[in-house]
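User: I'm putting together notes for a lab meeting next week and I want to include a structural view of one of the chains we've been expressing. I don't have a solved structure, so I'd like a prediction I can at least talk through. The sequence is below, exactly as it appears in our construct file.
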Amino acid sequence: MNRTLNLIQKGRTRRRVAVPGDLFSLHFPTLGWMYGLVARDDARVGSFGPLALVYIYDVISSKRLPVPKLSRERLVVPVKATNPTPWRTGKWEFIENIPLTEGLVYPRHSFYCHIFKKYYDEQSNEIVAGFEPCLLHAMANVTSIEYDIGCKLNLIPLDDR
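Assistant: Thanks for the context. Below is the predicted structure for the 161-residue chain, given as structure tokens.
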């Protein structure tokens, strides 16, 4: 990709670190509003951490509020481990803190490292086998998450992928 990615319109920035239950929005001017939720704020990926485990749902709305019904079965991209940058830059806008219920997030997550061919838990401890959801053992930055969503929703032309 040879250009800056600006699929998500910037909103209000936020200095407070995200905590579990923080519901946030992403605004795609050509598409509408999408929503995400912080499942954990203490994840570790190798030496990176603490990181937020975030769910970004495939629900799209023409208005930011009210937030439509969300389900962990309807994710636009797999769960991501990220730092506070998406909130600090305004790409993700805090809405409110809500209780984490079973239908919104999974109670546990596993990670697979392609380099070492091993599985890890949320604290980067090696485990015998992975379980669903099994995520990539890597930290995702705001640009890579925006790119993944853009590809999934066909907002990025095939020539730019």
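A couple of points you could mention at the meeting. The chain has a mean pLDDT of 91. The helical segments are 85-88, 142-152.

User: Perfect, that's what I needed.
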